[in-house]
Model the fold of this input.
Amino acid sequence: MPKSKKPYQHLAAFYDSMDMDRFAVNMIDYTFRILRKFNYQPRSVLELCCGTGTAATMFAEHDYEVTGVDGSPEMLKAARKKARSKKL
Done:
């Protein structure tokens, strides 16, 4: 595995505790405002580089069908765990 991917193996375990998901929260709020402004109501979302799934779970909580993709299996594992904990 290339060295560039290895840091995410270790980072996934404590990524959320570093408040790294603040960007995702702000991005989702902005996205919802734009969708409302243009009265656009998509029902599915493809999130690239989903990390631990913060944005993906927020979309799912608003009844979107979400597919999250990430290059790190560890980040995807954390995202699945987060979704399960929220019963999504």
Observations:
- The chain has a mean pLDDT of 87.
- The chain has one domain: 3-85.
- DSSP finds four helices and two strands in the chain.
- The two ends are 31 Å apart (CA to CA).
